Amino acid sequence: MAWTREQMAARAAKELRDGFYVNLGIGIPTLVSNFIPAGMRVQLQSENGMLGMGPFPFEGEEDPDLINAGKQTITELPTTSYFSSADSFGMIRGGHIDLSILGAMQVAQNGDLANWMIPGKMVKGMGGAMDLVAGVKRVVVVMEHTAKDDPKLLKACNLPLTGQGVVDLVITDLGVFTIDKKGGTGMTLIELADGVTAEEIKAKTDADFKVALGSKQSNAA
Amino acid sequence: MAWTREQMAARAAKELRDGFYVNLGIGIPTLVSNFIPAGMRVQLQSENGMLGMGPFPFEGEEDPDLINAGKQTITELPTTSYFSSADSFGMIRGGHIDLSILGAMQVAQNGDLANWMIPGKMVKGMGGAMDLVAGVKRVVVVMEHTAKDDPKLLKACNLPLTGQGVVDLVITDLGVFTIDKKGGTGMTLIELADGVTAEEIKAKTDADFKVALGSKQSNAA
Amino acid sequence: MDKVFSDARSALAGLVKDGMTIMAGGFGLCGIPETLIEAIRDSGAKDLTFISNNAGVDGVGLGRLLETRQIRKMISSYVGENKLFAQQYLSGELELEFNPQGTLAERIRAGGAGIPAFFTKTGVGTLIAEGKEVREFDGEKYVMERGLFADISVVHAYKGDTEGNLVYRKTARNFNPMMATAAKITIAEIEHLVPAGDIDPDQIHTPGIFVKRLVHVANPIKRIEQRTTRKRETVASAGAGEEI
Amino acid sequence: MDKVFSDARSALAGLVKDGMTIMAGGFGLCGIPETLIEAIRDSGAKDLTFISNNAGVDGVGLGRLLETRQIRKMISSYVGENKLFAQQYLSGELELEFNPQGTLAERIRAGGAGIPAFFTKTGVGTLIAEGKEVREFDGEKYVMERGLFADISVVHAYKGDTEGNLVYRKTARNFNPMMATAAKITIAEIEHLVPAGDIDPDQIHTPGIFVKRLVHVANPIKRIEQRTTRKRETVASAGAGEEI
């Protein structure tokens, strides 16, 4: 059985470390915050200018001046600080955020990432995605393994790129892959979802990858 | 009679306009703040990170956390704001300061300014002078006309430059000169100190200059 | 030299002209200078270029200026919330320049700080880098981006004093502080007007030098785009919650 | 993950090594992290490069590290207050790189914000531009300057919370905020330590992400370089006063 959205988020949460500052994209990545282990101190950054993002407010306590990068109402924590967009992206571009977890349309075996536009369709814009993948120390992609049976893990992206050689780890509903984005060892399948086989993954993947199940590579920060 | 330091400062104060934000260098320029006309609102910037600089404190009220760029104890005003050195020089470099009044060792007829080093002597550093002359909208130099009989207004500076083509107006103890720093009309003597003649100035000046006494050029912002 | 104007229309009087470039603060609908945007609409000025992270939503914020077809070009990072935008863009009426959000923020900050160009990793190897200089520093590639400077900037602040010193509130700060520095004339709308000296000078976000005109908008309507809440019985966990 | 250390020596434990590059905040003697500088002296590390606007005065601040000859190189904008500095520089013991003060501030800000290089008007046509790229933008010449990033930064703040959020006081802010962002490890000394949540999150100057270690220095000695005052009977005028 492939992983559910929650299981994918739980797997992504294993990439967290005590003291990390983390930026979560919208969709499944947002769910990761539900799986932060008790006692682990993780601060969430929201690129619109906040560090220490709290949960959604109780009904009736929404504050229009307090939203996350997905424009959702949120709350603050005792650790919270606010800053401008320039300072926020200085933090991101300067490599101060430890981990970014985000969705993708396509990931290539060299770490290229596409998640912002489909030619011919109306483009909404890249928002902060290009800055995040270029600037954050470690980039983890969480996505469905295929889109309507089309593989999303490719030899090369055919959609316009969000970033070149930027992805370190990919978590799909079928398994987990490391990517050596500096080249070298390429893409490696290191974990399988329960009941999924490497053969099944191979059939649904365009990218070339090695298999090294049980490897500890995913823990490399 | 040549102008005194106070008279030079008073003449420099005529360059102030209501609502101006101004940076004053050390020495005679500092005295300019004593000649701000009553009712005129002028805010003084100190490049170490303050806008709205107040007078020296009363004895016993000095605050080590509150100094100007000359490292002198000062006070704050109701209009005061504090900011970082990066923000301060962003303000300066970005052309937000209306006027800088500072001293000089040499000024050339093309607007070049030298005021930070003498080769062979121990160099203290340029501090913020290069940023000020490059960034502030209008640069006024206040200096003695000569240094031990050597002219300081030159065809070309022979000391290392602080800035190239940056000076708009020079006030010496003998008179006032405009400079067209974009080239064009060059240097022009527009005012004489009481009892000083253009001939006396010519004899003490190396730079070429036109004479247009009574011109209103000095009021151009 | 009084910076305080009685209303948005008089604060903008004589400033808005056809074809000019205007920066407008805000992220989504959070911290947008909505009253000043309405006054720009009322000015009737056309062929405007707006630099703003988003384009409002239909009927709110810059969405209002799309309705009246006063905007010729947008420089933004994300415009997904606005249907009218898509329509005008696809019909060729509206020009659009996408900037990565951090690049946009930094270009504005650079423009205000006298920096004509800088290098960033963001966008290397993407469409964004096309036609731009790419250069290697210490073995990594960077794109050169240019500073941005506008004719006027309109910003929203929580509090302001008569000297023009501004304080923003929570995530309504976003693009406002940089935009305040990056135009010939900056006009601020503020929710609370206080005398100079009332704001602790260590806590001023935008020094008054950057603000030429102020208008006091006592009770602005603040809209929420995505109202997300949690139930009272839910145990709080950092950043967690459920959409409703 | 506790960021609070009991004293400066333990806050620096294992961090200071021979030959490393260290940023130290402060302008003159205002806002310098003097306790941490003393602890660096006590570490005995040699051949250090310091990035700091000034070099302290004889016997105070970085002046102490000149006495012990631990500094090999300074990157500064003004060192005029320090006699020992001049002596070591002229004898060739000490290397010196002058930066215009604004260029220095911006290079540090750039280093912390992931910007490897930027262009500035400052220094065009002067010694500062020699060997650097000069380029024209819109008809004006600019010099390219590089970002600065250090091994460690030591900064002084007025207040800090257990998360590492910092607030500076008056002109003691100066270079401290940028330096806090521009090193692998930043250590802050703070005059007042409070629990997380005590500081209004809109009023934090340096977010805790930039500060790895904190030491509480309850009553630091603050020195004044130029004690200037006015007499009680003097009528106050903006910026006016007389030296004593």
From TrEMBL, chains A, B:
The UniProt entry, under SUPFAM superfamilies, shows: NagB/RpiA/CoA transferase-like (SSF100950)
Give the top-rank taxon of the lineage listed in the UniProt record for this protein: Bacteria
Membrane spanning segments where? Answer: 20-40
Q: Which Gene3D superfamilies match?
A: Glutaconate Coenzyme A-transferase (3.40.1080.10)
Per its UniProt record, what Pfam families does this chain match? CoA_trans (PF01144)
Cited SMART domains = CoA_trans (SM00882)
GO terms for molecular function, please? CoA-transferase activity
Which UniProt keywords are listed?
Membrane, Transferase, Transmembrane, Transmembrane helix
Where does the record locate the signal sequence feature? none
Which NCBIfam families does the record match to this protein? pcaJ_scoB_fam (TIGR02428)
* Family statement: Belongs to the 3-oxoacid CoA-transferase subunit B family.
Q: What name goes with this protein?
A: CoA transferase subunit B
Species whose genome carries this gene: Microvirga alba
Task: Specify the taxonomic lineage.
Answer: Bacteria, Pseudomonadati, Pseudomonadota, Alphaproteobacteria, Hyphomicrobiales
UniProtKB/TrEMBL annotation, chains C, D:
Gene3D superfamilies from the entry? Glutaconate Coenzyme A-transferase
Domain of life where this protein originates: Bacteria
| InterPro entries the UniProt entry points to | 3-oxoacid_CoA-transf_A, CoA_trans_fam_I, CoA_transf_BS, NagB/RpiA_transferase-like
A GO molecular-function term, please? CoA-transferase activity
UniProt keywords (A-Z) are: Transferase
One short Pfam name that applies is CoA_trans
UniProt xrefs under PANTHER family: ACETATE COA-TRANSFERASE SUBUNIT ALPHA, KETOACID-COENZYME A TRANSFERASE
- Family membership, please give it: Belongs to the 3-oxoacid CoA-transferase subunit A family.
What is the designated name of this protein?
Answer: CoA transferase subunit A
Which lineage is the organism of this entry classified under, starting from the top rank? Bacteria, Pseudomonadati, Pseudomonadota, Alphaproteobacteria, Hyphomicrobiales
